[in-house]
Specification:
By secondary structure, chain A is mainly α. Chain A has 16 helices and two strands. The chains are: A mainly alpha (about 400), B alpha/beta (about 325).
């Protein structure tokens, strides 16, 4: 045998390699394979966790088609269109975009809060501040502009006697100084005399303030915001009362104090003058407190029984001015001053005259007026209390 | 979350003179979202006021977040957020100041309340409307502001009274999503009173249903739905005959045209229905377990109480006085309360 001559085994080896090459290129099965006995399965070399993408293409199937890798490409293309031609496409781009620096994407994230809550007095202070600061700044109880202007105007006018006294002192005009200087009559006059300022301006200011202070809570349902929080009805009513009282107090009581203090400073009076006049000043101060308390209690009672600001305001003016007018008309007919007991203003004036020590302009005893005043306040506070108790959280 | 009992009452009774508003109510509400359902005049508002510690109860006991409703109302209201059904906002105020003021009424410092007001208004979707006057707000924005007022202090429990009242579809969806986030993301609890069953079903996993001052159902919605499981069949070729045969076989069918629902007694009910179909010589073209909605549950319960109602709206929109009322002494409780 020639050694160079290939053996029959070599020929079979070449045939086998050719068949193998064809199988690799075509991926099909040759007749020889079909005739050959089944081979033992090849040992598993890949881990069990092999992904579809890593597996040989011939072992994968997607939607009935063999040989495709499950890449999600088809779904991606169905959703966003084919990527073919994308490289050569041109898009219209907003030229201003690179200069944009703002913009927020809304993410609804619930942020917890772990702070400490303040005690009762702080909550009450919030109510008080809400109603008083509303006269000066935004973000608190919204008062109409006209209300603010009227209050400012009446406050300025309540300082008028101080101004006149200063004017008399500066100019040396004794007539003016005597007319507006500190005296029982002038202290009474500052608070209760039947002048336009006392008889009309103060009731008008009160009517404007109390108009909606409780009634609007009923009208707008804001009472629910108070009583669904740890605010009890007594605190609510007290803070409302105090709010109105402080505003009226600034106009009536503060101006009285300024008038008295101004009288001492302008005239350069000493301690003896202070001691001599402090009694009547304190009496005037007490009368002023009584006036503020009575107006506030009547006003809040009216506000608590209504929805809206018009009725309480008109009703308050009606009670203060109307009763006085009726009493005046009847008293002229029968020549009896006792009919003035129906008028809160006259009761206040009578008690004020008694406290300050000026001449009485009423025939009946001052105690009657005082009792009537107490009765009026008691009724008002009862109505206020009852109506505030009826304010609802859920529905009216 | 889900196991802690936040509201529990024991034979809680509230009388207004001769009228019994709450009649010995015993409830246990766990943390999470709970729907409060019932017709007008059922006692929902009285229950809410009682839980807020605002009214003195006649007898019984009640605790909210561990505090006694009789004596610790202030503490309860400090830890609860309440969103009223009706308007409760000051028209002339800007939203930010309204929410801040609500925070101050709870007891927050003004500065802290202002900071928190910004956060919660952003959360309820009013970030860009914070400085707008409330009088210019739409209904949806007002509802969102009310919710912001209720959650400014991050309360453990938010009581919402008809939170989707008057809202359009998109605003309603946003409100419900927001409430859902309060529960799921914030881990807070919600007691939601609503007439809309879909809203309750979407947010809440539990309900408390009251009627004439009594609890008629409470518990997990899924458990309560299982009380009356039904099989829905669609037949062809003699529906009335089929209905008769089903009734003769001791089943309880309800029929609307060719569609019937049969109360499922046990697994043998399916076979029995098919046997009935053979007897009645009708085709059964569809047979499946009926998945009841909350409205179905409500109607079933009301039927048990003797009301002939077709939808919940029939009953919820009017006070059921004057109807033929059967003794309402039966209550349902589904699973854990």
């Amino acid at each position: 045998m020639d050694d160079d001559m290939s053996s029959i085994d070599d020929l079979f080896d070449e045939f086998d390699s050719e068949v193998q090459r064809k199988k690799e290129t075509s991926g099909g099965e040759t007749p020889a394979d079909a005739a050959a006995p089944p081979r033992p399965p090849a040992p598993e070399t890949e881990p069990a966790s092999e992904t579809a993408q890593d597996a040989p293409a011939t072992e994968t199937e997607y939607m009935g088609q063999a040989g495709l890798q499950v890449t999600g490409q088809a779904r991606l293309e169905a959703a966003f269109g084919s990527g073919e031609g994308d490289e050569s496409a041109s898009a219209q781009v907003a030229q201003g975009a690179p200069s944009a620096t703002g913009g927020t994407i809304f993410h609804q994230i619930y942020r917890p809060w772990r702070g400490e809550l303040n005690p009762r007095w702080m909550r009450n202070w919030a109510i008080l501040r809400h109603h008083i600061y509303g006269l000066f700044s935004k973000g608190h109880r919204p008062y109409p502009l006209m209300t603010k202007l009227v209050i400012f105007g009446v406050f300025i006018s309540s300082l008028a006697d101080l101004g006149f006294m200063a004017l008399g002192s500066i100019t040396g005009a004794e007539e003016i100084e005597r007319m507006f200087g500190i005296s029982r009559g002038n202290l009474y006059g500052h608070v209760l005399a039947f002048w336009f300022r006392n008889a009309c301006s103060y009731p008008i200011v009160t009517a404007l303030i109390i108009g909606g202070i409780i009634s609007e809570d009923r009208q707008h349902g804001t009472s629910a915001l108070y009583f669904s929080r740890p605010i009890n009805r007594r605190d609510y009513a007290m803070m409302k009362f105090l709010s109105v009282g402080i505003i009226l107090g600034v106009i009536i009581i503060f101006s009285l104090c300024m008038y008295y203090l101004g009288g001492i400073l302008v005239n350069g009076e000493g301690w003896s003058y202070l001691i001599d006049t402090s009694g009547m000043f304190l009496a005037a101060l007490a009368a002023a407190f009584l006036l503020v308390f009575t107006y506030t209690s009547i006003g809040l009672a009216l506000s608590s029984v209504s929805q809206g600001k018009f009725f309480p305001a008109v009703a308050f003016l009606g009670i203060i001015l109307g009763t006085k007018l009726v009493a005046f008309l009847i008293s002229t007919l029968f020549d009896r001053s006792a009919i003035y007991l129906i008028s809160p203003y006259d009761n206040l004036a009578h008690v004020g005259q008694w406290m300050i020590g000026v001449n009485h302009t009423y025939d009946h005893p001052a105690v009657w007026s005082l009792v009537m005043l107490l009765v009026m306040n008691a009724i008002s506070l009862y109505v206020l209390s009852a109506r505030v108790s009826s304010l609802e959280v859920t529905r009216e | 979350m889900g196991d802690e009992i936040i509201i529990e009452t024991d034979k809680l009774t509230k009388n207004y003179g001769p009228h019994v508003a709450l009649d010995a109510i015993s409830i246990n509400i766990k943390s999470g979202a709970t729907g409060l359902l019932g017709p007008n005049g059922a006692g929902k508002s009285t229950l809410i006021k009682t839980l807020l510690g605002l009214i003195q109860i006649t007898s019984g006991d009640g605790k909210v977040l561990g505090y006694d409703v009789r004596t610790q109302g202030d503490l309860i209201r400090q830890r609860i957020g309440y969103m009223p059904e009706y308007d409760c906002l000051t028209p002339g105020l800007e939203a930010i100041h309204q929410v801040r003021y609500c925070g101050e009424l709870i007891g927050m410092n003004p500065e802290v309340a202002m900071q928190r007001a910004h956060e919660v208004l952003e959360y309820v979707g009013l970030r860009d409307q914070r400085y707008r006057e409330i009088s210019t707000f739409s209904t949806g924005m007002m509802q969102a502001t009310k919710l912001a007022c209720g959650i400014i202090h991050d309360p453990e429990l938010v009581i919402c009274d008809e939170p989707t009242n008057g809202l359009d579809q998109s605003a309603r969806k946003f409100m419900l999503d927001t409430l859902f986030q309060v529960v799921k993301q914030g881990g807070r609890s919600i007691l939601m009173s609503s007439h809309l069953m879909d809203d309750v079903e979407r947010i809440c996993d539990r309900i408390l249903m009251i009627h004439e001052g009594r609890v008629i159902a409470q518990g997990r919605i899924d458990d309560l739905k299982a009380i009356d499981r039904e099989i829905e069949i669609s037949v062809w070729g003699g529906a009335s005959r089929m209905e008769q045969v089903l009734s003769d076989s001791g089943l309880k069918p309800r029929r609307s045209g060719r569609v019937m629902r049969v109360v499922r007694v046990d697994d043998s009910t399916y076979d029995l229905i098919l046997e009935c179909a053979v007897k009645a010589e009708v085709q059964v073209r569809k047979m499946e377990d009926y998945e009841p909605s909350l409205e179905d549950l409500f109607i079933v319960i009301m039927e048990r109480l003797g009301y002939g109602v077709k939808t919940s709206a029939d009953l919820l929109k009017q006070t059921p006085k004057g109807r033929d009322i059967a003794p309402a002494n039966r209550s349902l409780t589904g699973g854990e309360a």
